[in-house]
């Protein structure tokens, strides 16, 4: 799970993933939902004020440090040593995306069960996709993810976007991470570039599209947090 970012836009001294949503921190929502889905071996990549994240989660999860924030791909690179003796599927989730349901994680796992699939990416439709990586397809099949800052006008029109949640076969995840670079608009290691490698070795990258895009909502500002809390409160009030 990625939880090392500073969350500058939150304008807070609290690590972004520790901000509360309905009485529980964002990252605790994610850990709880992974546990309910049957995923108990969780590695959290910590960075900015990581000690505070460790204090909050304690022994529920394991940890690895990302001392420099050089992109999502760089964050996952830090996990390679932890998984050196592991051969299986790895879910990559974000500590600031709190509403992904256990059933959704289970559906990702089901996609990875197909030996022809090297990875699957969780996507959603956004009426205003600004800021998100766009899902590029040909003949309804995944081709690549293009980040906002690297996209041309045509790609920016695409409304299907990357939620930042994936499942990978571990072998191809770490092989692919060795082949990505920072030759992009942000000068970062993009995790989605690993998907290009997976396609290049003849495996499929599947797409799981959320029915309700709010499930994949990430928190970047206090306004977004307030809006999501209002949504959750209203939904719980209806149940």
Secondary structure blueprint with pairings:
Elements: E1 2-3, E2 20-21, E3 24-25, H1 26-36, E4 43-46, H2 50-57, E5 62-65, H3 72-77, E6 89-92, H4 102-112, E7 117-125, E8 134-138, E9 141-146, H5 153-156, E10 160-169, H6 170-177, H7 193-200, E11 204-209, H8 222-238
Parallel strand pairs: 1-4, 4-5, 7-11
Antiparallel strand pairs: 2-3, 6-10, 7-10, 8-9
Helix pairs in contact: 6-7
Textual characterization of the structure:
By secondary structure, the protein is α/β, with parallel strands linked by helices. The chain is built from 8 helices and 11 strands. The strands form 4 sheets. It has a 4-stranded mixed beta sheet. The chain has a 3-stranded parallel beta sheet with strand order 1-4-5. A two-stranded antiparallel sheet has the order 2-3. A hairpin with a 2-residue loop joins strand 2 (20-21) and strand 3 (24-25). The radius of gyration is 17 Å and the shape is globular. The relative contact order is 0.18. The model has no long low-confidence stretch (mean pLDDT 95).
Can you tell me the residue ranges where pLDDT is under 50 for at least 5 consecutive residues?
none
Query: Based on DSSP secondary structure assignment, what is the total number of beta strands?
Result: 11
- Elements, N to C (H/E): EEEHEHEHEHEEEHEHHEH
Total number of helices: 8
| Overall mean pLDDT | 95
Distance linking N and C termini:
30 Å
Helix content: 25-40%
Structural class per helix/strand content? alpha/beta
Give the C-alpha Rg: 17 Å
Largest sheet: 4 strands, mixed
What would you call the quaternary organization?
A: single chain
Question: Approximately how much beta-strand content do the residues carry?
Answer: 15-25%
Q: Write out the strand line-up for the largest beta sheet, numbering strands in chain order.
A: 6-10-7-11
- The coarse overall form would be globular
